[in-house]
Every structure is written in structure tokens, then in C-alpha cells.
Amino acid sequence: DQQVKQNSPSLSVQEGRISILNCDYTNSMFDYFLWYKKYPAEGPTFLISISSIKDKNEDGRFTVFLNKSAKHLSLHIVPSQPGDSAVYFCAAGEGTGNQFYFGTGTSLTVIP
Amino acid sequence: GAGVSQSPSNKVTEKGKDVELRCDPISGHTALYWYRQRLGQGLEFLIYFQGNSAPDKSGLPSDRFSAERTGESVSTLTIQRTQQEDSAVYLCASSLGGGSRYGYTFGSGTRLTVV
């Protein structure tokens, strides 16, 4: 049973525009959330995180929004750049838990 | 080393053979995780090591899978009598501590193909 879902397997965006990647989770005990970025033939690399005490965290062009009542988080990339083309995974976990649960990923293509 | 190192990067094996995958975590990282990603799927948790505590093996899909870790260093994941459904990218990650408060650093993975 998938506890973290990314319902859009792919997304294409024009360079300079905003990319919005969405993620839903089912477990209300999750209190820490991460986004990872993955290029082909490489392992995922950490991008940005947010804890449940916040509803927004910003780092440069990347902002993560958390809506706890809807059990939804999103990653905004603005402006999008061709180098942002990658697969993005969201992950969620409990502070006392041993693991993060990952979504299936969204493949982002930024068109020059 | 500077990052998490996994070897081999690619492995093709015949169905029924045993394989061993290796992970060198970042020095000082007490927690080590194995995940796998099958085609079109998300990252699937396999096993977690934290210091000298008993490992969390709850994600291992069958008794053909086992993993060892020597102290807080190298880990090996062994798959016995491989099956075609074992084909996946096996990812190792390490972190400073256990629990989800610490983000992971992933290795590049081992792509296992069972033919």
C-alpha cells in the first residue's frame, strides 16, 4: 500500500516558467518531508525538506509547501531551468521511525 | 570517502545464482539503509542498520534476501537464488543518525539484471 503518492509521472515546463510537483500522503503521523532529485545513472540527491511545524520552506528557486489538513505537499521551482530536468521524489517519515517512504517520482522536463 | 560508494555499478546474473552488493557509507554516518527501485516503481525500503542495534529487516521481500553490516562501516546485501523479479536498482543510503529527522545521502546504486 503506497503511503506516499506522486500521481503525475511526468511534467513538461517551458524554461523560465514555474514547475509545480505534487505529492500526497496517507499517514497523519508523518511529520518530516523531503524532496530528492535524481539524474539518470545517479543516486537521488537531497533537495529540500520541511517539518510539520511549518507550512513553507524556501531555498533559492525551490519552495516546498505543506498542507497538513489535506496531507499534501508540493515543490515549486521558479524560474525553471533546463538543468532542473530530472526525476523528483518526495518522501515522508515519522520522527521516531526508521525509514522514509518514497513516492514513485515525477519526471520533470524543462524545455529550453 | 566523500560520498556513499556502491559496487558493482552494474550486475547481470543468471536466474538462480547468488549475488552480493556492497555499500561503503559516509564515514561517521551511523545509520545505513538499503532501498530498491524496480522499473516504474518508487523506492522500496529493504533494511536499516543503526549502530550496534538489531537491524530493521521489515522490508526484506523474502528469505532469499539478507544483509550484513560490520560496525558502522561496510554493508553487503546478498540475494540468493536470484529471480527475474529481483531485477532493480539497489540503492544504499547513509545518514548521521537514525530516525527520519536526518536526511539520507544516497549512493549511485547497483543496477541488477537477472536473465
Keywords:
heterodimer; A: 112 residues; mainly beta; Immunoglobulin-like; six-stranded mixed beta sheet; five-stranded antiparallel beta sheet; 0% helix; globular; B: 115 residues; four-stranded antiparallel beta sheet
| CATH-assigned fold name of chain B | Immunoglobulin-like
> In CATH, what is the class of chain B?
Mainly Beta
Q: What share of residues are in beta strands of chain A?
A: over 45%
N- and C-termini, Cα separation of chain A: 38 Å
Explained architecture:
The complex is a heterodimer of chains A (112) and B (115). By secondary structure, chain A is mostly beta strands. Chain A has a single domain, classed as Immunoglobulins (Immunoglobulin-like, Sandwich). In chain A, 0% of the residues lie in helices and 54% in strands. Chain A contains no helices and 11 strands. In chain A, strands 2, 4, 5, 9, 10 and 11 form a 6-stranded mixed sheet that branches. In chain A, strands 1-3-8-7-6 form a 5-stranded antiparallel sheet, with no helix packed on it. Chain A starts with a strand and ends with a strand. Chain B is an all-beta fold and 115 residues long. Chain B has a single domain, classed as Immunoglobulin-like (Sandwich), CATH 2.60.40. In chain B, the strands form 2 sheets. In chain B, strands 2, 4, 5, 8, 9 and 10 form a 6-stranded mixed sheet that branches. In chain B, strands 1-3-7-6 form a 4-stranded antiparallel sheet, with no helix packed on it. In chain B, β6 and β7 form a beta hairpin. The model of chain B has no long low-confidence stretch (mean pLDDT 91). The interface between A and B is medium-sized, with 29 and 27 residues.
